[in-house]
Amino acid sequence: MDHPVLDQLVLAYGALFNAKRQPAISRLTLHPLVGSPAELADGVLAMLAADWSEANGPLALNPTSEPLLHALLARPAPAHIQLEVPAFMAADPAGAELLREHAKSGSVLVLKGRPLAPLPPDLAGCFKHVIVDAAEDRRQQPAPANAPARSTPWVIAAAPTAAVAADALKRGALAVQGWPLGEAPGANVARKDVPASAQVVMNLIQRVDREEPANKLDAVLRGDPALAFKLMRLINSPAFGLSVEVSSFQHAIMILGYQRLKRWLALLMTSAVDSPDLKPLMFLAVRRGLLMEDLARSLGDESARSEAFICGVFSLLDRMLGQPFDRLLSSLPVAEGVAQTLVGENGPYRQSLNLAIAIEAESPHDITDAAGEMLLSAGEVNRAAWKALLASRQMQPE
Questions:
Q1: Helices (H), 119-248
Q2: Per-residue pLDDT for 147 more than 90?
Q3: Fewest CB atoms within 10 Å of the CB: 34, 82, 205, 294?
Q4: How far is CA 40 from the centre of its chain?
Q5: How far, CA to CA in Å, does 4 sit from each of 43, 70, 246, 254, 370?
Q6: Contacts for 143-150: CB closer than 8 Å, 24+ residues apart
Q7: Cβ(378)–Cβ(368) under 8 Å?
Q8: Do 129 and 110 contact (CB within 8 A), yes or no?
Q9: Beta-strand pair 9-17/175-177
Q10: Spatial distance between the Cα atoms of 81 and 75, rounded to a whole number of angstroms
C-alpha cells in the first residue's frame, strides 16, 4: 500500500450515494504537486491495480490537471475504474476524438458538467453517466417538445440540502455526489428524544466506561437483537482484521478489552439512527474516524488513536440526532479531549478533524494548509487517506 506516487499528489476523496443511500461509487480527486513526473498516470494506475480490486466497487478518478487527464486517457483502465472528463473537452473536436478512442478500449468515461450543445449520439454513448450540478439541473422541468430525448444516466452534484438530494433520487438520478451534511444544530433547537436504539448504545458505553462485568453488558445488548447483530457484523468486519471471529459480546470483551470495545460501540451509535437520509452521514463519519485514527498513529499512543477514531465517528452525531454536542455529551461519556474538539474550535483533535473535512471537500489548497498546520507531508496525509478510503469500503454501516 506504500506507493511512490503518493508523494507526488494531493489526494482527496468523495462518494456517490444511490437511492438506498449507500455509497455506490467512490471518488478520488488527483491533484499533482508542482514538479510531478510525466509518468504520474502510470503510478496512479499501478496503485489502483495493486489496491483497488473490482470487489471494492467502482472508483471514479477526478484529475485536476489537463496533462494528467490526457495521460490517463492515453492508457486503458479496468471497467471498475471510471475517468471523469469536463464537458468542454467533449465539445472540442480533438478532445472528442481522444474520448472516443478511450471508450473503444473498453475504459469507462463520465461526463462532468452539462454540455452547452447536445453531443453527437456516438460521443454521448461513450459516457456511463453525466454529472450535473444541482443549480443547472434542467430535469426539474419537462424537456421542450423539440429537445432530443435524454438517455444518459445522470448524477446530481452540489445538492445544497438533503431534501434536494432526495428529490433528485426520486426523479431518477443515478446517485448524489457528496451527500449534503446540513447545518449543525444550534443551542436554540428544540429538545427531542434520542432514538431508543441510540439510548441502548449510550447505556452500553456508560457501562463499558465503568468496566461493568461482561454478563451485565451482554444482558443489555440481548434486549435489542438487531443492535447485537450489527455490533457482531462491525466487530468481524475485514477492516479491523481480527484473527478470530467474535461470536458474542462477552467474547468481544475477552478478545478486545473494554477500551478497544468503545470504538465498536461508537460505530454502533451511528448505525442506531433510523432516518434513511442519515445513512450517508454514517458512512462519512466512519471514514472520518478511520482517517483520524491513522493520522494519530505517529503519536505512538494507543489511547490517542482510539480517541481520534471516536472523535471522527462522533463528529457528525449532532446532525444525526438533531441535538447540539453540549447536550449530547451530557449523557454520552467521551474523553475530555474528544469533548473539547466536538464542542469548540479547540481540542487536541481539532487539526486532524479539519484535515478530514478538507479531504472530504476535495479541496487541494485546504488540504495542503491543514496538513501544514499538522507538520505533515503530502505523502503522509495521502497514505492515511488512501487507507481510510480502502477500509471504509469494507465496513459500510447499514
A1: 121-124, 162-170, 196-209, 214-222, 225-235
A2: no
A3: 34
A4: 24
A5: 7, 21, 37, 40, 22
A6: 148/118
A7: yes
A8: yes
A9: antiparallel
A10: 12
Mean pLDDT for the chain? Answer: 89
Helix and strand counts by DSSP (H, E) for the chain: 18, 8
Asked whether 132 and 154 are in contact (CB, 8 A), the reply is yes
294 half-sphere exposure, CB direction, 13 A CA radius: 23
Q: How far apart are CA 294 and CA 274, in angstroms?
A: 29
Give all domains of the chain, ordered by start, each with its CATH number: 4-177 (3.20.20.450), 196-392 (1.10.3210.10)
- CB burial of 69-99 (b: ≥16 within 10 Å; e: otherwise) equals bebbbeeebeebbbbbbebebbeeeebbebb
C-alpha cell read off for 267? 460505530
Q: Which grid coordinates are listed for 276?
A: 434513511
Q: Nine-digit cell at 67?
A: 496533462
Tens-place pLDDT, residues 6-18: 999 999 999 999 9
- Position of cell 449532532? 318
Cβ atoms 397, 283 nearer than 8 A = yes
Amino acid identity of residue 237, one-letter, is S
CA 94 to chain centre: 35
Distances (CA, A) of 321 to 191, 195, 198, 284: 10, 8, 9, 15
**How much is the average pLDDT of 70-87?**
96
